């Protein structure tokens, strides 16, 4: 990888949060019995005429305004012709030459705190295809295949980036930021498991310093940020190995197999001319006037970028902490409610404390509970605030606080004070008892004492750890440190 550069562009299909489909009145609810939500318009039966969903158009305008794109006053729906078993029309209604949104950009932070901005090419409206269902015994070839057309006609906004990303990590961070934005704007429910948000990754490699792009391969329908990162890393390594062994990369569509952690060839990659795009004769030109755009603009919520800046200015949070807190409206609401429930503490310190717990313990437990959001977290803002209050007033130590957090997650009906009292977890402040533990540790660790006297600060930290272990985490760490220094310096 020292001599090669990865080039990544993403195409993301965002299922829009409307009650009916893109061109028919059929419902879009997930989980209905197969083929119970397939309308004659979605199947293009003779004599039917499609009609655009105004709610979906509103969603597209909202997105365009959020990313600073240009809203097309005139855009066209086209027929994209291809055959899939789950595409009943034999074509898909999409947009090609004149999309509803052109340009725009999305900024986000990487894990190291650095900021990136990805330029967008376009965002266009289209309808989804149906779904092929394969059933059979585990480990054997499918015995039966069926077609479920409930999803056919569901409104999608396809968001296409420029090929400006240079690592799998950057691509995954962009996808997370985009997911956060569309759910923040309430134009998509963001459910990855149900396919509401899925990415196609265009991956190529080129020698470092080269301006020419390599041949790209498209990895289809990735509905996990972790899988997206792994798929791009594997595909880039595959292409590099192929080129270095004298082979050539073929432009093709591939699928990612998470069980084998590899991409596999699916079909040769089509170009635009293969789809024989032409304007849909049943749909008029989509005209969007200034009044409509202004109405949508007036109804827009505060955007994540604005929320991040406000958090940094008001509470002094770092860009990385602000990015985490403003990752979603749920996360921001959780943060605000927790801070408000912690009166009496210095605002900047309170905000940093809450952000730290959201980044560490709360995020860890949410990740373990797949599909659980901040709004469904068993440890509510009030419960977390109660725990942090006891941590800040010295009633419990950080170690005990984390243990209590885990208990509260399992049984949120408990109270923080009740658990502290019933389990005898109150921090020991008694100087006599702490001095006794300190004396025992000093006596048992003469080597550490010599290292401390030689100027090695790590020795002091090690002895503090020994005292905390003796006290089963109940001793006040500040009091322990002070007692140790006092005795050692004497």
How are the secondary structure elements laid out?
Blueprint: E1 4-15, H1 54-66, E2 70-71, E3 74-75, E4 78-81, E5 91-94, E6 101-102, E7 105-109, E8 115-127, E9 131-135, E10 144-148, E11 155-161, H2 168-184, E12 197-207, E13 217-222, H3 225-244, E14 252-257, E15 262-268, E16 278-279, E17 286-287, H4 290-298, H5 304-315, H6 319-325, H7 329-340, H8 347-368, H9 381-392, H10 398-410, H11 416-422, H12 431-444, H13 446-453, H14 457-470, H15 477-489
Parallel strand pairs: 13-14
Antiparallel strand pairs: 1-11, 1-12, 2-6, 3-17, 4-5, 4-16, 6-8, 7-8, 8-11, 9-10, 12-13, 14-15
Helix pairs in contact: 2-3, 5-6, 6-8, 7-9, 9-10, 12-14, 12-15, 13-14, 14-15
Describe the structure concisely for a colleague:
This protein is 39% helix and 19% strand. It has 15 helices and 17 strands.
What does this structure look like?
- The protein has 490 residues and is an alpha+beta fold.
- It folds into three domains: 4-294, no CATH class; 304-422, no CATH class; 431-489, Arc Repressor Mutant, subunit A.
- The protein contains 15 helices and 17 strands.
- It has helices at residues 54-66, 168-184, 225-244, 290-298, 304-315, 319-325, 329-340, 347-368, 381-392, 398-410, 416-422, 431-444, 446-453, 457-470, 477-489, and strands spanning 4-15, 70-71, 74-75, 78-81, 91-94, 101-102, 105-109, 115-127, 131-135, 144-148, 155-161, 197-207, 217-222, 252-257, 262-268, 278-279, 286-287.
- The strands form four sheets. Strands 1, 2, 6, 7, 8, 11, 12, 13, 14 and 15 form a ten-stranded mixed sheet that branches.
- α5 packs across α6.
- The radius of gyration is 28 Å and the shape is elongated.
- The protein starts with a strand and ends with a helix.
């Amino acid at each position: 990888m020292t001599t090669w550069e990865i080039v990544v562009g993403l195409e993301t299909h965002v299922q829009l949060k409307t009650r009916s489909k893109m061109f028919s009145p059929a419902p879009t609810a997930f989980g209905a019995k197969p083929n119970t939500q397939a309308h004659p318009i979605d199947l293009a039966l003779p004599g039917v005429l499609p009609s655009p969903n105004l709610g979906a158009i509103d969603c597209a305008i909202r997105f365009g305004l959020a990313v600073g794109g240009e809203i097309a006053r005139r855009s066209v729906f086209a027929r994209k012709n291809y055959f899939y078993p789950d595409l009943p029309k034999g074509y898909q209604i999409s947009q090609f030459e004149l999309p509803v949104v052109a340009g725009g950009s999305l900024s986000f932070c990487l894990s190291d705190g650095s900021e990136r901005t990805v330029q967008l090419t376009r965002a266009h409206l289209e309808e989804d295809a149906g779904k092929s269902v394969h059933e059979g015994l585990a480990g054997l070839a499918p015995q039966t295949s069926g077609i479920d057309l409930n999803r056919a006609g569901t409104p999608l906004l396809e968001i296409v980036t420029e090929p400006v990303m240079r690592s799998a990590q950057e691509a995954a961070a962009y996808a997370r930021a985009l997911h956060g934005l569309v759910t923040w704007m309430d134009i998509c429910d963001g459910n990855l498991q149900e396919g509401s948000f899925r990415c196609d990754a265009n991956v190529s490699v080129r020698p470092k310093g080269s301006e020419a792009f390599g041949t790209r391969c498209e990895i289809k329908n990735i509905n996990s940020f972790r899988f997206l990162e792994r798929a791009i890393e594997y595909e880039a390594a595959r292409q590099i190995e192929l080129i270095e062994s004298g082979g050539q990369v073929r432009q093709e569509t591939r699928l990612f197999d998470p069980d084998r952690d590899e991409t596999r060839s699916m079909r040769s990659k089509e170009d635009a001319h293969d789809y024989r795009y032409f304007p849909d004769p049943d749909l008029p030109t989509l005209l969007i006037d200034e009044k409509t755009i202004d109405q949508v603009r007036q109804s827009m919520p505060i955007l994540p970028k604005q929320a991040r800046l406000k958090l940094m200015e008001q509470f002094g949070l770092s860009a990385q902490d602000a990015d985490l807190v403003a990752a979603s409206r749920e996360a921001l609401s959780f943060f605000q409610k927790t801070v408000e429930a912690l009166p009496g503490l210095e605002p900047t310190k309170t905000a940093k404390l809450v952000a730290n717990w959201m980044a560490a313990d709360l995020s860890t437990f949410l990740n373990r509970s797949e599909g659980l959001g901040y709004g469904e977290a068993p440890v509510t803002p009030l419960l977390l605030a109660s725990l942090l209050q006891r941590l800040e007033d010295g009633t419990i130590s950080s170690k005990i606080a984390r243990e209590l957090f885990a208990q509260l997650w399992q049984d949120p009906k408990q109270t923080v004070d009740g658990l502290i009292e019933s389990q005898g977890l109150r921090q020991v402040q008694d100087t006599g008892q702490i001095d006794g533990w300190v004396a025992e540790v000093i006596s048992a660790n003469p080597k550490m004492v010599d290292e401390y006297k030689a100027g090695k600060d790590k020795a002091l930290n090690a002895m503090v750890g020994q005292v905390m272990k003796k006290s089963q985490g109940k001793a006040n760490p500040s009091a322990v440190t002070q007692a140790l220094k006092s005795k050692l310096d004497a």
